[in-house]
Amino acid sequence: MPEPIDTPVLIVGGGPVGLSLALDLAWRGNRSTLIEREPGTGVELLAKANGLHERTMETCRRWGLVHKVMEVGFPRDHAGDSVYCTSLMGHFIGRSVIPSANLRPTPPESPEKRQRCPQYEFDPLLARAVQERALTDLRYGVAFRDLEQDDHGVTAIVREVATGREYPLRAGYLIACDGAGSRVRRSIDVPFDGRMLDFSLSAMIRIRDLAEHHPIRDGERYILIGPDGAWGIMTSVDGRGIWRFTMVGSQEKLDPARYDVSADIRRALGSDAIEFEILRLVPWRRSQCVAASYRRGRVLLAGDSAHTTSPTGGHGMNTGIADAMDLSWMLDALLKGWGGEQLLSAYDLERRPVGIRNSANAAANYQGWLEKSGYADVLTEGPAGDACREEIGRRLVASLHGEWNSLGIDLGYRYEHSPVIVSDGSPPTADETSEYVPTARPGHRAPHAWLADGRSTLDLFGRGFVLLRFGPNPPDTQGIEQAAARAGVSLQIVDLQEPHIVVLYERRLVLVRPDGQVAWRADESPADCQLLIDTVRGARAVQSVGA
């Protein structure tokens, strides 16, 4: 007899990915348990992400958290420019202009625009939202030790950090959100393939009224250039007085106890007169790695446990949250009994290629920083130095455009080889870093468009499958509806006649998954409606379900 289940889903790791998964499961009405070895959420001033990209903000829109993110995020009038200079008091080299949240328009491809919110504010915001749902057992100060699994579930051994007491937790599924050094991933012997790029050291520092001290204003980040190329970066963490200084390009691990980072901070500031306070030093390794598989049985990987990226582009946390959103609806389907065994295989086949893609893009961005040629005269006064700085600025603005403008990366991923996506044979759209081509092609994110009542098409998706029917005389869908009912699949029918949306979605019938990705489309119902429904819910391998 199978062991009794203590929790349907055990989430290991209480960072933004683990909390997002717990929140979305609760939003769908599912219980879970989350363990986190730290004593609470946001207890340390982390030198981590602060950029929430468009797809992440669309997810926050689903949860009703957009305004809360804006409340704790950067001041709305804070410019987002990336400035290239020799120091904050030194030579100006160039500027990638990124308007403030007040001035930056919402892109036509999304109902939301990206926001800046420090992770030490974003994580507690998510934790509060999880607690308000009251469906997640949050256990802080509890660390994962080991696991065993069988056909019916996973038994994890966990340890209370304060007391050392160990005890078992039995779960239907275990999700590893425990970071790049994931103990869960190592316990299931999944290789972490990739490469180490370099070692970095980040200093979280407080500088009061920095803008009053230096002439190069309106930068959210300052990329510092010397005769050997880029050597450091100063990044605003909260849009106020907290900054992150990061050394780049070191091939040796820097020991905070021995390395005098103060000298480098003064070099970055370009003055000994500007006072600063070092709040925390964090050594870390910049890498480009992806797990060989995102799944072993009932154990699945998400976030940094599945992939690491250079922070150049801000893809790490955003990719991890998208992992959680793909996994959430699949777990919901399995827990409620209508999901099939193909779903867990689909998660790996859908998200792993995205992890490879996004990690490679971030590494390519970083290579743009490491170019060494043409910098010799960057500190030289006079015409030779001016010409050198002008050329460097022009080159950096062009080569790093994709790092600051990545809508294609954020919205353009697709699940073409998934067993729960039914291809319609249409050719793929371009997969570009900055350019996103909206399409309702199966496997892609269902495109955003504004409805007559002021909602986005994206507001239609989330709870279950949605079958969109287009035009004044839509095809008969009774067979699809009956097949969904027999399988216990929640299916909502939505009729749309707005001409611009009809053109955008291209077919008269489009079936959208709970995560907002298109599962199938055609101009008529298929000959075998049950085959269609069973395929998209993971109950059988994909095959032709054409009309």
What does this structure look like?
The two termini are 45 Å apart. The model has no long low-confidence stretch (mean pLDDT 93). The relative contact order is 0.12. Among the domains are: 7-77 and 112-193 and 292-365, FAD/NAD(P)-binding domain; 414-536, Glutaredoxin (3-Layer(aba) Sandwich), CATH 3.40.30. The protein is globular, with a radius of gyration of 24 Å. With 547 residues, it is an alpha/beta fold. It has helices spanning 16-27, 54-63, 66-72, 119-133, 183-187, 261-269, 315-335, 342-369, 383-399, 401-404, 407-411, 478-487, 499-505, 529-536; strands spanning 7-12, 32-36, 51-52, 81-85, 92-96, 115-116, 136-140, 142-149, 154-160, 166-176, 192-206, 219-226, 229-236, 242-250, 277-291, 295-296, 299-301, 307-308, 465-470, 491-496, 509-512, 518-522. It contains 14 helices and 22 strands. The strands form four sheets. Strands 1, 2, 7, 8, 9, 10, 16 and 17 form an eight-stranded mixed β-sheet that branches. Strands 5-4-12-13-14-11-15-18 form an eight-stranded mixed β-sheet. The longest helix has 28 residues, at 342-369.
